[in-house]
Amino acid sequence: MIRIALYVCPQTVLSSLSMADDAFRLANQLAGERLFEVSRLSADGLPVDIGFAQLRVEGDLRLADGADLLLIPATGSAIERTLKGNPELLAWLATRPASQQLASLCSSACLLAASGVLDGRRATTHWSLAGGFRQRFPRVNLQVDELFTEDSNRFCSGGAQAGLDLCLHLIAWHGGDWLAERVAGALVFERGRGRQSRFAPLLPEPLLEDGLIAPLLRWLQQHHAQAIDLQRLAQQANCSTRTLLRRFKAATGLTPNDYLQRLRISAAQSALRKPGRSLEQVAAQVGYADRATFAKLFKQLCGETPGAFRKRLQQTATPA
After folding, report:
1. Which residues pair with 59 in a beta bridge?
2. What is the pLDDT of residue 320?
3. How is the chain classified by DSSP, letter by letter?
4. pLDDT at 319
5. What average pLDDT does this structure show over 231-245?
6. For the packed helices 256-272 and 230-237, what is the interaxial angle rounded to 10 degrees?
7. Of 18, 8, 4, which Cα lies nearest the Cα of 108?
8. Neighbours of 28 (CB within 10 A)
9. Residue 159 · residue 128 · CB < 8 Å
10. Looking at the predicted structure, is the pLDDT value of residue 317 above 70?
């Protein structure tokens, strides 16, 4: 029997906790035997108040000493508050032997990283936390494109539903691939969904208080399919190219050309959702005369080809 300890703290995201708990208990049900023994624990063994509910636990961190796997559900985006609120867990994690499996869902990768157990190892977290995570934990090999990572008994998952991808991986690890497939089928969940990068928005949120750039971005939304170079953008914004480059990068984090390409590919994603248009027509509609160039950039930014993107949408839209 595989003993799994789920860590609960005031920052715990209840949906993440319940998703993991449900996955392992469903695996037991479908296997017809108790393969996984799941328990909940807190730092001090007392019930945990998460704001709108109080969660009961079976013990404190000593309960996790004998667990085969400690899994930390998501703890939200307030990373500093999470780290300050869980000193006992950080100290406990730092003492773990390499043989014990440690796993985090979504933002809780920060807890594993802060304890040092991810140093030199591959890890992932929610794509929106990548920048701050890299600055705070430079010794971790962050692979934010991945839905989940595995490295020497250390497991991490990306955002939200990627936690279920990791739970299915752990079920397959301990109970067999056949069981993970049955659990995924019962949950109407697709395994092997690709990379987390295809869920991240292509366009950053701009600093719209810049009175020069904000109207230019609105203009680009309407004219992105046209032939546009830096000089034309500068004329539209009524400024020099040097000023445009500086203020555009400050407002969006991208160069004008990078932003334009992302805008076009984002428009292509919308166009591909509509049936009846060939890939050549979609490419031309968003500003590309060459289908090959369009397809290469689409895959680079979206993690899959335009054809694969369209096929996946058709499959998910088709009723059973």
Report:
1. 41
2. 40
3. -EEEEEE--TT--HHHHHHHHHHHHHHHHHHTS--EEEEEE-SSSS-EE-SS-EE--SB-GGGGTT-SEEEE----S-HHHHHHH-HHHHHHHTT--TTSEEEE-GGGHHHHHHHTTTTTSEE---GGGHHHHHHH-TTSEE-TTSSEEEETTEEEE-STTHHHHHHHHHHHHHH-HHHHHHHHHHTT--S----GGGGS-SS----TT-TTHHHHHHHHHHHTTS---HHHHHHHHTS-HHHHHHHHHHHHSS-HHHHHHHHHHHHHHHHHTSTT--HHHHHHHHT-S-HHHHHHHHHHHHSS-HHHHHHHHHHHHS--
4. 43
5. 95
6. 100
7. 8
8. 19
9. yes
10. no
Confidence bin at 316 (pLDDT 50/70/90): low
Its pTM stands at: 0.75
Over residues 175-189, mean pLDDT: 94
Residues 114-131 pLDDT 10s: 999 999 999 999 988 998
Q: Which of 49, 47, 45 is nearest to 65 (CA)?
A: 45
Q: Does 57 have pLDDT greater than 70?
A: yes
CA separation, residue 318 to residues 2, 198, 275 (Å): 38, 21, 13
Given this structure, which CATH class describes domain 213-317?
mainly alpha
- Decide if pLDDT at 68 tops 50: yes
Domain residue extents for the chain? 2-198, 213-317
For 245-285, how does the pLDDT look when each residue is reduced to its tens digit (9 = 90+)? Answer: 999 999 888 999 999 999 999 999 999 988 888 999 999 99
Distances (CA, A) of 87 to 39, 83, 154, 211: 21, 7, 20, 45
The whole-angstrom separation of Cα 141 and Cα 171 is: 25
User: CA–CA separation, 122 vs 140, rounded Å?
Assistant: 7
The token pair that represents 170 in the structure block: 């752990």
Task: Provide the b/e sequence for 249-259 (b: ≥16 CB within 10 Å).
Answer: eebbebebeeb
What CATH number was assigned to the domain covering residues 2-198? 3.40.50.880
Cα torsion angle, 294, 295, 301, 302, sign: positive
